Inverse folding.
DNA sequence: CGAAAATTTGATCGAAGTCAATCATTGTGG
DNA sequence: CCACAATGATTGACTTCGATCAAATTTTCG
């Protein structure tokens, strides 16, 4: 896929961009293809890049006391960045890695800021991305606070019906805030009933 | 305080607004003063209003199986709205109430959208509000996922050192996702040591 | 094919929840 | 301005869900 097509998808999904804005965005961004397991961001690094997933999947995770905890998945037509580092210019607590062969569009924060200052359309697009992310985080807090391990699992299946085919149960369990063992037991019960 | 002063504070805190934009915002917004316990939004209501707290405090909460769970506090110079209802035009799962005598600036979603479409400055301001909220939610997820009840309490004290003087322990406990009894026990230990 | 990674299964434990009974503080009407 | 009801906070006894630790089994892939 070429950059213009990708930017059109983005424009359709988030907010309309005028032609001049699209063109300039195209000039500022690069297409990147990575193999499974390759790393976009490492812990401790200050990352000023945002990634739009054209095809494939990625996850952000931390190592908390040696344990690998997935904090975010991003699939086709999603954005991902090292959220704390990107917005607060601090060392990233997250790693970001690619879960399969993945094609991305990369743009730097500087360029996003230039585009946002110059084009109202682009400011609107980043606003929509932030707002959608905000709503998703809000829903996740409700899920974490009120749901049992089993409800959390059912809930993620509703949002992403085929997620178990795309990510390992280890990553999925840590994402919904339960242990791998508990997830395994929940799944066992479900197939029985 | 008059509207112009309030809008200047908002412009300073979030993103600069030009004079024309400030003036128009002033025309679209209303000052409202409420007494302790008065309600801004009720569960089930579709709320299209955003509130900027000039002075006082508010909280958003749900009734989950009869239990009152605080989901958000807003103090001076914070925004608050019924986040799900406002952005997705659905019945609000939240109530929003005023915790003490509180002065607010109210603006409707329609007017926010008009201002955002017309003024790049205003779009930028709403973008900043969404981004800040997103980062706060993200931090809260990390806190909920990794911290013990005691760490959650220490954590909220770091962010809001005098929060226990402004909100009841009942509300605080539910906000950090622990029971009132557990919070009480944590506080007892701390004063002893 | 065989090693490494992922998942399942089992046994045990503990942090925090629940339920229940005071105790303390606050605010209002007589 | 006090009484006392209502609300908020503390304390205790007990329970539970899901974590942890450990081992076995299955899957993946070089």
């Amino acid at each position: 896929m070429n950059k213009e097509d990708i930017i059109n998808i983005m424009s359709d999904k988030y907010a309309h961009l005028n032609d001049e804005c699209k063109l300039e965005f195209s000039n500022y961004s690069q297409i990147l293809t990575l193999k499974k397991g390759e790393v976009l961001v490492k812990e401790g690094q200050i990352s000023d890049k945002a990634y739009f997933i054209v095809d494939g999947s990625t996850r952000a995770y931390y190592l908390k006391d040696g344990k690998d905890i997935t904090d975010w998945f991003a699939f086709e037509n999603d954005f991902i960045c090292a959220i704390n580092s990107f917005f607060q210019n601090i060392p990233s607590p997250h790693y970001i890695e690619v879960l399969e062969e993945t094609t991305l569009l990369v743009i730097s924060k500087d360029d996003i800021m230039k585009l946002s200052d110059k084009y109202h359309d682009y400011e609107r697009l980043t606003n929509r991305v932030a707002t959608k992310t905000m709503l998703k985080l809000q829903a996740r807090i409700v899920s974490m606070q009120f749901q049992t391990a089993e409800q959390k699992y059912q809930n993620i299946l509703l949002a992403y019906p085929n997620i178990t085919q795309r990510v390992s149960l280890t990553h999925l369990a840590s994402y919904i805030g339960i242990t791998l063992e508990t997830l395994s037991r929940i799944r066992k019960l479900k197939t029985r009933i």
